[in-house]
Write a structure and sequence with these properties.
Blueprint lengths: L47 H21 L1 E2 L3 E2 L32 H8 L6 H18 L11 H11 L5 H10 L26 H11 L4 H15 L1 E2 L4 E2 L17 H15 L2 H17 L31 H13 L4 E2 L2 E2 H13 L21 H17 L3 H21 L1 E3 L2 E3 L22 H17 L24 H4 L1
Antiparallel strand pairs: 1-2, 3-4, 5-6, 7-8
Length: about 500
């Protein structure tokens, strides 16, 4: 283990629940007195009016999404709809990725799981859930794309959430397709190449996280194959280890969705599950590299969006789940889960807190300038930030850290209130329109999907309503890419609520 990087001596591989890794200084507590979110008034106790407000909007958004579902050899969902809202999809036939978690019907599974924690599913919803299970179960037998957000790992996620046990068909297929180098991609990320990808969204890291989350007879083989493949393609740097999206990708997107922060998270979580010290050590080396390319200014921590800076017109630092400290905070909770106490001299709990402090002092969710916070979805916007803040709030409760927990709850509600304010509501339900400032007509059509649209926003609003109504002991519908960030007793793995 590198110098200054320490594991919990009581259990070197998999503690049941480590002591607060933030150290006695309580690094998860707020320290920035200028934080405008932290100065708002709210508590962790039940708030029926807020719960009703968020739930009502979640139901309206879900109603709009449900009305967009089509039928063609099983259910499918157009990703966008025309500007008039309720009618006239811009997609008239199912897309190639119709089944995927990112933008297809698999992405409706976590919403249905959230709804089932609130109320009984309607007959229409039960029929949709059954249709999704039938469609994905059949397609998984022959599917070759492995990834979490566009392939078999996403199938496994949706199937486990809707009908626990049925995910085995997708996991079996992943086991069949596995090779020493990982899983061949079908996504044409690099021209002329089907070489395995590494990241959470499209690659091996997402497959590994899904296998560990789902468990079962194929999980150990899948996770081991994936982690060993990741070690083979790691790039050694002065500080540690680094991964591109692909083995030959020169540019880096070092944060959670496509970069080293996500790969290292997968290695840490799998290392803890499998008792593989080498995987955990590689995760620490990945974290050391992430620290080396980031900034620890102003009691925060941020990593550039792209290295070297993108030639596209993008913010050099963003604050999202995908390319910012929101998602990258999961790396440090993953290390804590694996029993790692420090990285490069910093307590992992402090680094998680620093990530979130940078988000809370950034100005999010205000649209401060063109290109800054033009999205309210899960991947790149407001709902994704809110969801991670609730993870942190519920984790703080385990450490009796009421001050930090209340700060994160306040911030999560600020995100929820922004979604309420920006919603387009009419007789068809509710939806959101994001902005793309680089286009001549920047206002985008409403999106239906889990990661970029109303389905994912509805899922967050349902969770926020549940939290607002019951407090930090509210159940969490956990998913492959975040389950370790919340206490074990709160995780429901979705399934039993829906089946």
């Amino acid at each position: 283990m590198p110098q200054n990087d320490a594991k919990d001596p009581k259990n070197p591989v998999r503690p049941t629940r480590p002591k607060n890794p933030a150290s006695p200084t309580n690094a998860m507590s707020p320290t920035n007195a200028t934080n405008p979110i932290g100065s708002a008034t709210a508590t962790n106790s039940g708030d029926p009016s807020a719960a009703h407000r968020y739930r009502d909007l979640g139901e309206a958004a879900w109603s709009w999404v449900l009305d967009q579902v089509r039928e063609d050899d099983g259910p499918w969902l157009p990703e966008t709809v025309s500007e008039n809202g309720a009618k006239g999809s811009s997609d008239t036939v199912p897309a190639k990725d119709r089944d995927c978690l990112y933008a297809g019907i698999a992405g409706l599974a976590p919403v249905l799981a959230e709804i089932a924690r609130q109320r009984e599913l309607t007959a229409r919803e039960r029929s949709l859930a059954a249709g999704i299970v039938t469609r994905l179960s059949a397609a998984a037998k022959d599917r070759t794309e492995p990834s979490l957000y566009d392939g078999l790992a996403g199938d496994a996620t949706a199937l486990r959430l809707l009908a626990p046990g049925t995910e085995s068909v997708a996991l079996r297929r992943l086991a069949e397709l596995a090779a020493p180098g990982g899983w061949r991609t079908t996504l044409c990320f690099e021209a002329g190449s089907d070489a395995p990808l590494n990241d959470i969204i499209m690659g091996t890291a997402g497959v590994v996280l899904t296998a560990v989350w789902a468990g079962g007879e194929y999980a150990e083989a899948i996770a081991t194959t994936g982690c060993e493949a990741l070690l083979r393609v790691a790039d050694r740097t002065d500080a540690g280890l680094d991964w591109g999206i692909g083995a030959t990708t020169e540019s880096r997107a070092p944060n959670y969705s496509h970069g080293t922060a996500g790969v290292a998270s997968a290695l840490a979580v799998a290392g803890a599950a499998l008792g593989r010290e080498d995987f955990v050590e590689a995760a620490v080396l990945g974290a050391r590299h992430v620290l080396s390319v980031g900034r620890l200014d102003d009691d925060g921590f941020v990593v550039p969006h792209t290295i070297p800076p993108s030639r596209r017109e993008v913010e050099p630092v963003t604050y999202t789940w995908c390319h910012g400290p929101t998602g990258t905070s999961h790396l440090f909770s993953a290390l804590a889960h694996a029993g790692v106490a420090k990285v490069s001299g910093f307590c992992v709990g402090e680094l998680r807190r620093r990530c979130l402090a940078s988000v809370l002092t950034s100005g999010v969710p205000r649209r401060l300038r063109p290109g800054f916070w033009d999205n309210d979805g899960r991947c790149c916007g407001t709902a994704g930030v809110g969801d991670v803040l609730l993870d942190a709030a519920q984790d703080c409760a385990d450490f009796a850290d009421a001050e930090s927990g209340q700060m994160y709850v306040r911030a999560a509600r600020v995100m929820g209130d922004a979604l309420v304010e920006r919603a387009i509501r009419d007789g068809a339900g509710a939806r959101w329109r994001f902005l793309e400032h680089r286009q001549e007509h920047p206002l985008l059509p409403p999106n239906t999907s889990w990661m970029q649209g109303a389905a994912g926003i509805a899922g967050y609003l349902f969770r926020l309503a549940r939290f607002a109504g019951t407090g930090p002991e509210a159940a969490v519908v956990d998913r492959p890419d975040q389950w370790w960030a919340v206490p074990e007793r709160l995780r429901v793995a979705g399934g039993t609520a829906v089946s």
